[in-house]
Prior knowledge:
By secondary structure, the chain is α/β, with parallel strands linked by helices. 32% of the residues lie in helices and 22% in strands. It has helices spanning 16-24, 68-82, 98-110, 152-162, 187-195, 237-240, 243-256, 272-283, 304-315, 338-349, 355-368, 406-420, and strands at 5-9, 43-48, 51-57, 85-91, 114-119, 141-143, 174-180, 213-219, 222-228, 259-265, 287-293, 324-326, 373-374, 377-378, 381-388, 393-398, 428-433. The model is unreliable at 26-41, 201-212 and 231-238 (pLDDT under 50).
Amino acid sequence: xxxxxxxxxxxxxxxxxxxxxxxxxxxxxxxxxxxxxxxxxxxxxxxxxxxxxxxxxxxxxxxxxxxxxxxxxxxxxxxxxxxxxxxxxxxxxxxxxxxxxxxxxxxxxxxxxxxxxxxxxxxxxxxxxxxxxxxxxxxxxxxxxxxxxxxxxxxxxxxxxxxxxxxxxxxxxxxxxxxxxxxxxxxxxxxxxxxxxxxxxxxxxxxxxxxxxxxxxxxxxxxxxxxxxxxxxxxxxxxxxxxxxxxxxxxxxxxxxxxxxxxxxxxxxxxxxxxxxxxxxxxxxxxxxxxxxxxxxxxxxxxxxxxxxxxxxxxxxxxxxxxxxxxxxxxxxxxxxxxxxxxxxxxxxxxxxxxxxxxxxxxxxxxxxxxxxxxxxxxxxxxxxxxxxxxxxxxxxxxxxxxxxxxxxxxxxxxxxxxxxxxxxxxxxxxxxxx
Length: 435
């Protein structure tokens, strides 16, 4: 479970991205190498001393045609809003600049915990430079070198001390689902339709919703909690035009969800940002439903829906397991189909299969489609176990994992789906060498 968010902030050329990469190291949360899944290095999952947290490199959020000071201000605002702890990075070789002072004053007003990293101190000659940074008034400066890894453990120790200890309480009988998508695809309208009341203010103007929405309700005896990411946005339209920022805002909602409803605009069609947003749900291993909203605005014939579904499958190849529903939130059309589907994909994401039946299916799969030579050898699968749920994860014990071709892995996933269902949930297959 991710517990806490760290944001790295500071002016340009102080080494924010270097420290980001140093902290993340090889612990970037990449589930599988599937073409079409966006891996934007502005954020990642990291861990230190058994503590998992999310890390944001705000330097990767840039605004076209904005002044240098405006860039810094907005990056700092994002850090202040999103983070539980802020890592303020300065350049120890250049000393304090007016931009450093500008950021420090913003951070002081935020009352968020701050760790001050004086970077580029990789030579004893610069060691005494750190004392100048006490004057910023944001805490004790820690000497680090992002490029050499010096002092990274020290700043991580401080960061972990400041991270929140409380975990999000989760009613085990409650299905939590989030509604994600780029701005103005109808997320708030869909939330209202599902809740059956005007719980969220709806408008055609992007950025209307201001407060985070997290609503518990009951439907047909089942408890639900809906998270409307439309309500998780920074005021001001300019933030909505920063694609990386809107993706960032969806992450916390996805993290808290059991099921993710990915909404696209049926009238406007699919754009690149839709794929970026949806990739987060897939990589998080959540159950997913693709929803085409505003279907009432589309001029249709008998083949329109079929064409749209084909386009969705082509554009979202990594979500080939996700069911597709065409709705009109405004006119409440097909909304009733969603609750049974949410419950079904939720259960599939938690499904367990017995080891004996699992191995019978894999034996039959290999008999129907034997493995071929790859990477200098031919894969042999001795047996398999399901090791976890959310998503269902299977370990194949083999003669050598290097012999497992990606296409054969996909073939096995498809056979498991045919045998056990798993609609709406990703399946993870991990190959290991048998001892």
